[in-house]
Amino acid sequence: MDRNGDTLPPYYVSGLPDSYYVRLFPRQSVHLFHSSYCLHWRSQVPEGLEGKREVYLNGENMYIAKNTPPSVVKLFQEQFRKDFSLFLRLRHEELAFDGQMVLTFLGRKDEDVYSGDLNHLFGLLSQSLQSLVVEGLVEEEKVSSFNLPAYGPSVGEVTALVKESGAFEIAHIKLFEQNWDP
């Protein structure tokens, strides 16, 4: 019953500890799908970040930074495109007719792939790891070979992939800005 004493239709709530990059529910069985702060994580680190002779193409960065080569940025973008397209296809199969999705994830407010909260936060973490290398506490190769399986897309990138999928219409997009200063 709701607060007014009216009877609510039967409903089931489920939270699953599994990858979004596999089928989670039976076909056309979900009426509302909600994802909160998971979709910036990728299914894997982009392939190809290790160049010839163990040269790591993203240098000392674990994510996209100001000095990340455009070829590396493209690898992160392609991994996002592949994963998010798969996510949309799988959720489309699971959603009932007129089903809805609410997706909340980290991203960028503009198209500049070198800016954004994730770039800043993971840049600080990269600097911290580099200071451990300088102190001799961590091997440089371990830091240089480490890349996060993450990508913070722009609203434009998300919108384009949703439209390209042909499976969904966007009813509403809201950008929330986070102030990281205390």
Features:
182 residues; alpha+beta; two-stranded parallel ribbon; 4 helices; elongated; metal ion binding; SAM-dependent_MTases_sf
Describe it.
This protein has 182 residues and is of the alpha+beta class. It has a domain at 45-165. The protein is 32% helix and 9% strand. The chain has 4 helices and 2 strands, in the order βαβααα. The protein has helices at 70-94, 117-134, 140-144, 155-165, and strands at 30-36, 95-104. It has a two-stranded parallel sheet. Strand 1, helix 1 and strand 2 (95-104) form a beta-alpha-beta unit. The chain is elongated and about 65 Å long. The model has no long low-confidence stretch (mean pLDDT 89).
Give a short synopsis of this structure.
The protein has 182 residues and is α+β, with helices and mostly antiparallel strands. It has helices at residues 70-94, 117-134, 140-144, 155-165, and strands at 30-36, 95-104.
